[in-house]
Each structure stands twice: as C-alpha cells, then as structure tokens.
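Appendix B, record 7
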Amino acid sequence: MTRRFAVQATLVVLLLCAVRISAQESPVGVWRLAKMRWVNAPKGLPKEKTGNTVVLRFAPGGAFALIQGSIIQQQHGFQEHLSQGDPWTIYTGTWKRDGQWVTVTYTLLYRDIEFTGRDGMRPCDPPRTAAVVLQGNSLVFDGERYEFNPRLEKSVNDTFSPRPGLPKSQCGAGKGATAEVP
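Structure tokens (predicted):
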C-alpha cells in the first residue's frame, strides 16, 4: 500500500512539473504534423523522401502561418524543405500567449487550387480561432499533434520572411462583392 502511494505521489509531482514547464514554454519556431506518410524516391534518384503535411510557423512577433503542402526530406533526414513544385494552401494570422494559454486566430490567405461558387468567386472564409496546448517538443493544435522541427525551420523562414509574393486572392461576400483576404 505505501509503495503504491509513493508511486502515485511521484506521478502527481511529475505531472505538476510538466504542467508548470509547459506553461513557461513558447511556441516560437516551426512545427510539423507528427503523423505523416513518407514516400521514398524511385531508385536511381537521390535518396530523398517526400510527404504531404501541415506545417505551423510561430514567429517571435506574434505572426502565425499554417502551410499545407509537401515537404522533401534530404538523405539521412538531416534537412527538410518545403517543396516548391507542389500546391500549397496557406493560412496566416496571429498568435498570443495569455498566461499558460496560447491562442491562434487565422484565415485563408492563398490556395493554389481555388474552389469557387457559381459566380466565380471564392466564398470568404471567416477567421478561425484555435487553442494551442504545448507539451515539451510537441504541441496540439486543432486536435492534431505537431512536433518541433528545426530541420524544416530554415526553409520555412526563407520562404515566409518576408511574406511571399503570392497572387492576390479574392473572395466574394455576395453577388458582385469582393474582399481581399488579409
């Protein structure tokens, strides 16, 4: 009975320490979806892997980007970069820390393949808000686990600092109405 109590007490202390540590962490950096399927390059090509994923970028000043697309992992996994030849969907917004909580507000900025209505305009997407839960070298965003990924950071920062020159994406709030997505 005492041994069981000691184990339980130790677990409670470790859990409280983990919560306290996570309350002091910052999401700044690049995070990649933890679950992703890698595909090896065909024989005869450089030893690379590719995979479709979601990447989150939390900039120090509070800027946020969510990029859906493909990444390429170089031989031996030492470096990863965004694939420049595959379609992207990009959301941008802001993040802020309020005590132990991190909140993200974001909206669609760009999509290589636009989905339009009958009038040819893309419906305006309302801003989305999500809470971020930090857990050491991972975080939970919108119900999915992401891993901190410094191997991908250079590619994402080079591509999104400053904001890339993308075609202006328009959305329609009704027949004939347009509004530029921020």
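Remarks on this record: Residues 27-180 form one domain. The chain is about 20% helix and 45% strand.
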